[in-house]
Amino acid sequence: MSQTTIFADALSEGIIVNGVARLTFSRVIGENKIEPGGLVVIPLAQIPNMINSLGMLMKQVEEKFKAAQSKAENHEQNGAGTGDAIPSSFSFTHKN
Predict the structure, then answer these.
(1) Does the pTM exceed 0.85?
(2) What is the 3-state secondary structure (H, E, C) of 63-87?
(3) Which of 7, 20, 40, 47 is the most exposed, having the fewest neighbouring CB atoms within 10 Å of its CB?
(4) pLDDT in tens, 74-86
(5) Is the alpha carbon torsion for 3, 56, 27, 18 positive or negative?
(6) Which residues touch 69 (CB under 8 Å, ≥6 apart)?
(7) Across the chain, which distance is largest between two alpha carbons, in Å?
(8) 27-58 pLDDT, tens per residue?
């Protein structure tokens, strides 16, 4: 099964019809220019699981940011320079 990548800066519209959420995402393409980024269709019953997964992702991002910030502060206090940068990437997998 192939995957389609949708790059999105914002959720621009959400419509629920017959128990199915249709979420239209948008992306910024230039100064004050926005275009549709894609449509995601999700059964309404799955929305709470999706929100929970996004919340867990956000928590992990915050934890990694705080850890990197703390490590950088410790390096600076010890005269070791700025230390490691905040990670630019990491993986997240939600398993039920």
Answers:
(1) no
(2) HHHHHHHHHHHHHHHCCCCCCCCCC
(3) 7
(4) 777 776 555 455 5
(5) positive
(6) 86
(7) 61
(8) 988 888 889 889 999 999 999 999 999 999 99
